[in-house]
Amino acid sequence: MNYNAYILKLFFRILLLVCTILAFGYSIYIDKTAYSILISIGLFYLIINTYTFVKRRFLAMDDFFEAVKYRDFSRWFPEDRGPKDIRFLYTGFNEINRTIKEINSQNQAQYVYLQKILEMVDIGIIAYNLESGDVLWSNDSFGEILDMPSFKNIRFVENRKPELFTTIFETYHREPDSLSIALQNDNIKILISDTVFQVEADAFKLIVIQNIDDTLNKNESESWKKLLSVMTHEIMNSITPISSLADTLQMNLKVAIEKPKESHLELDDLSAGIKTIKNRSEGLLKFAKTYRSLSKVTHLNLQRTRVSELFNNIQLLMQPSLEAKHIGIEFKITSSKLELDIDAHLIEQVLINLILNAVDACKNKDDAKIKVFASQNTNRAIVLKVIDNGSGIPKDILENIFIPFFTSKATGSGIGLSLCKQIMLLHKGRIIVKSIEGEGSVFSLVF
Questions:
Q1: I need a surface site. Which of 80, 97, 409, 447 has the fewest CB within 10 A?
Q2: Range of the domain at 135
Q3: What is the pLDDT of residue 124?
């Protein structure tokens, strides 16, 4: 309505200008000098008034875009003075600023949650820029293991301990390696693994180290290598879709800021996305506390959970990353009233593992499709299925896929499916697989 009022006022001014110009021309034609002077004064006034009217709104928009450019979302635009259309515009600007500040605050809270998760583990973790050496993030355990103070650039280590720098930062450890390092005239044994990842144009290296000297003998060292793989596997499985969902939310905000008239900012969608990130972070926190002793867990945090709610959380989390890989995913429930007594965080972890395995199986398919299906069979058991049309599983390894640390993948850890089976056993349920090589697989969770 306010936009229409603005157009109406602008049209009225243009109409007056046209009429005044015609009157001015007519007065000259009939040689009425006095009328010409009066009309020319009115024409000059109308031109100034129209210019000011149009300029005022563009100045308001220019102020807002300048604030966005410099990320100054604390600015407040006066909503109680000035023309009605300008006040309406200012109200919209203030609402966008409030929304962005709230989202930034929530994103910061999610970052703190993830940071606390990684701070709680006694494994040293550091990520740094490969080109500049600037540290993106590291936890306290990393400095404690290497007996180093906090530093912002890895060149600090190079200047103080060149040999340690070469071993930790310059040597690549694609697979977990057990090695000894010299610290203060003493040698300690550590387990180290690293990976390189890309963020836009920058390449980063993530290093994970574990001090195993005091607690492990040679056989135990091998077990710790696999245990480290468990942690890395499960944390990355959760962080990747969280990051993808955060990127999608950020992109939607950017479009809404740059093209406010063409884009409709849905606060409900933003709220749902942020809530999903929070829920998965809490699940990851719980997993970080229990993954080492999962085989000894005798008590689950069972809660009555709607399957539809479980599926909605996973869909919000996984959809952006799957769309980026051009893989379709469909969630279907025979009845919206289906409920389970489960530990929702752990079952989410199982479904995420199965979906990611399906993604890997479909990576070479042009019409890749994943279906997540929930139903109740004739025995009143509730069954959750993850179905894909991928490469399938060869018969000769099908019976071994749930054996811990067995894997047919070059980069696999062999713990994902064994962990899924363990979680289902804790719920007194079963996990069943049916697969045809070249056609796809069906994993069923039977409760």
A1: 80
A2: 123-215
A3: 86
